[in-house]
Structures are given as C-alpha cells and as structure tokens.
Specification:
178 residues; alpha+beta
Length: 178
C-alpha cells in the first residue's frame, strides 16, 4: 500500500457537487449559468448606448512638509553617471516645489525627499516603489518593493569632487606598520 495519496479524476457531477458545497459552506452566491439556444446570436451594441469615457483626473501633487522642502535644497540635480555605463537624471519640477523628476532607462518617476535618521538623502516615489538614495560619496536607485538595487555607484559632479577631496586629504599609506 502506497503512503503517497493519489489524485483521482473528478467527474463533472462531482465537481459541481463540490462547488455547491463550497458555496453553501462559505456563503458564496453563484449565478446560475444561462442556457443559450443554438440560434441565439448576441445583439450588436451601438456606440450611442455607451457613455462617453471620462478623462482621468490629474494626479494631485503629494503634500510636502517644510522639512522636506529643506531637504530638497540638498538634492544633486542633473545626470549621474552610474556603473555599467548607465545614467540616472534628476531634475526639479518647476511647478511643484519639493518634487523631482527622476529618469532611469527612459522611465520617469516623480520623487519627493523623505527624512532619514542616518543623514542620507532619500527621494521616493511611493506609488512606483522607487527609492533614490544619495550619500556624500555616491547615489543608488533601488526598487523598494522587491528590495533590490537597480543601479549603484552613481555620482554627480559634486559627489566626484567630494570623493577626490577626501582622497587627496587622506595620508598616503605605506607598506609598513608602526
């Protein structure tokens, strides 16, 4: 005798009985199937009966606090050169203070600064799940929904200058230890 259960083919009557039991057990009301005759043809619909399509309402701008407006002043704008010859562009939206247009691989996102405890600058599009993290030495783009980096090692001209200044200020390390 096998310990592995086998699956038997259910007949249509058995499937219907299981469906009826499920509907009764969980309070689901199922619509009865409609019988169609062989000569019944669907009636054509006219465009006059259909209501006109409504225009999609303009997406309201996300409210930005005073703290977020202060953080927006620290955002590096322009093109950032990233690893694997990729580019991320960050531009201010003139009509929406505190909002930025982030472009990566020909896709645009509207991001706003979010406050962090680490001091990193975080620009986020909560609807798309995109996060742009900016620290003094580099920036990176992440997909927060799946927790994965989309691109890393991005540097604006200001970040490149800061990294060069730190490297120049660091003492030359020798091969011997004291």
């Amino acid at each position: 005798m096998s310990l592995i259960p086998t699956r038997r083919m259910a007949t249509p009557a058995l499937r219907l009985a299981r469906l009826a039991w499920f509907c009764a057990a969980f309070g689901v009301v199922a619509a009865a199937p409609v019988a169609r005759s062989a000569d019944a043809t669907p009636k054509p619909t006219t465009a006059a009966k259909k209501p006109a399509a409504k225009a999609a309402p303009a997406e309201p701008a996300q409210r930005v606090s005073d703290t977020q407006l202060q953080l927006a002043d620290r955002v590096h704008t322009g093109d950032a050169a990233c690893e694997f010859n990729q580019t991320v562009s960050v531009e201010r939206l003139a009509d929406k203070p505190g909002h930025f247009k982030l472009t990566f691989k020909k896709v645009n996102y509207t991001v706003v600064p979010e406050e962090t405890t680490s001091g990193a600058l975080r620009l986020e599009d909560k609807k798309a799940g995109i996060v742009w993290l900016q620290i003094p030495s580099k920036s990176m783009l992440m997909n927060a929904r799946i927790g994965q980096r989309l691109v890393d090692g991005c540097m604006h001209s200001e970040q490149r200058a800061a990294v060069k200044a730190v490297e120049a200020a660091a003492p030359a390390t020798g091969g011997s230890k004291p």
